[in-house]
Specification:
Largest sheet: 2 strands, antiparallel
CATH architecture: Orthogonal Bundle
Number of helices: 14
Order of helices and strands: HHEEHHHHHHHHHHHH
Radius of gyration: 20 Å
Strand content: under 5%
Length: 405
């Protein structure tokens, strides 16, 4: 009944995507100061628990069961009701267990809200974050999964997103920007990353996991799986080198953090297009990502937006850029299940991709701002000045590094 090769591959891909969330925790943890390491890392790790509970309860059903107005699913499979151990996902001879698909999609749900946390690091209370995590998944992430991947209105319109340019990076990045504006700037200024080796470890885990993120999104093993795998590495490499060259030229030093950040920007940017464009197009997308995301971060710094870990400039701008790039470079000669982009005569498809990512970005920004305003009436969103000086101790009663030991 099940294709064992595809099933084995998807179990590995699921594990790789799961590994990305601890990787994100290390990436963010290295970028903050010594006294705030645990507070940022727990925000990623707690998503692994809370999001799993929510996914089991209602998330999978709202994303992939039924359809209400093209916006959201129904609750027919709440608590995985009606899902049997031998249920099949797929068609023909490429079937995998439905349970594997459920687990794979759950890993995407876990990491997406965790991405946002890098923007408001050091200044959001843990209680407010937990409420925000649940609300944002219910009203932003789950609807867009359904609309794009669950047969909803955007899918019906012909919008494509191979592995999450709209569904993951654009909405998380724009939510991050809204949270930056709502919460305001840090009052305790940190002087750069406390551990660049931790940032490097996190980048390595993210890059490794991204093969499961992108190649796994084909949901079987075929030539498109291989294409997405290769395109992922190519785009990340070209983006990282491009960012490094820009930093070396403009900042007069070849910055290691710049190389790492550029690679992550390339990974985010290729995500929506990984299985729909040629490898030569992935090269162009990687270079464009390195340039555009670098200057997006520079603009953010010039405007004094306190997006602490550059979530908007890397994931938001990267996700939007990658979606637009798909609208340009998509080719049915590469993937018959895709669409022809603007460069191949598909002006209509290009228009749909641009409109979809704009709608998603505007909604994610607006809802996030409104949600934080409501949560702030329930419990303070922002930490006090005293707490901000050392969130690990003040909020969690723990320290990453104990002086003298």
């Amino acid at each position: 009944m099940f294709d064992t090769g595809n099933t084995g591959f998807m179990l590995v891909a699921t594990s790789l995507v799961m590994l990305m969330t601890p990787g994100l925790a290390f990436f963010y943890g290295g970028l903050v100061g010594r006294k705030n390491v645990l507070s940022i890392m727990i925000q990623s790790f707690v998503s692994m628990g809370i999001t799993t509970v929510l996914w089991f309860a209602v998330g999978y059903s709202l994303c992939f069961s039924g359809d209400i107005g093209g916006i959201i699913g129904n609750l027919d499979h709440a608590f995985l009701s009606g899902v049997a151990i031998d249920d099949v996902f797929g068609s023909g001879q490429n079937n995998i267990p439905l349970l594997v698909f459920i687990a794979y999609q759950m890993m995407f749900a876990i990491i997406t809200p965790a991405l946002i946390t890098g923007a408001f690091t050091n200044r959001v209370t843990f209680k407010a974050y937990l409420i925000f995590l649940v609300v944002w998944l219910l009203f932003v992430y789950f609807p867009f999964v359904h609309m794009v991947w669950g047969g909803g209105i955007l899918a019906q319109w012909g919008v494509l997103d191979f592995a999450g340019g709209i569904v993951v990076h654009a909405i998380a990045g724009m939510a991050a920007l809204a949270s930056v504006f709502f919460v305001g700037k840090r009052k305790v200024v940190e002087h750069g990353p406390h551990s660049i080796p931790l940032v490097a470890l996190g980048t390595g885990l993210l890059w490794f996991g991204w093969y499961g993120f992108n190649a796994g999104s084909e949901l079987q093993v075929d030539q498109i799986t291989a294409l997405a795998f290769l395109n992922t590495d190519v785009a990340a490499s070209f983006a990282g080198v491009t960012w490094l060259i820009l930093a070396w030229t403009i900042e007069k030093k070849p910055k290691f953090v710049g190389l790492l950040t550029g690679a992550v920007a390339g990974l985010a940017t290729i995500t929506p297009a990984a299985g729909f464009v040629s490898t030569s197009s992935a090269v162009i997308i990687g270079i464009a990502s390195g340039v555009i995301c670098y200057f997006a971060v520079a603009m953010k710094n010039k405007l004094n937006w306190d997006d602490a870990l550059d979530v908007w400039g890397v994931h938001g701008v990267g996700g939007i850029l990658g979606t637009i790039a798909l609208g340009l470079f998509g080719s049915t000669a590469v993937n018959a299940a895709g669409a022809d982009g603007l460069l191949f005569g598909g002006a209509d498809f290009f228009f749909k991709e641009v409109v979809a990512v704009v709608i998603a970005s505007v909604y994610a920004f607006g809802f996030t701002w409104a949600a934080l305003a409501v949560i702030n009436k329930i419990t303070p969103v922002r930490t006090s000045d005293l707490e901000e000086a050392s969130l690990d101790e003040s909020l969690h009663g723990e320290q990453a590094y104990i002086e003298g030991i």
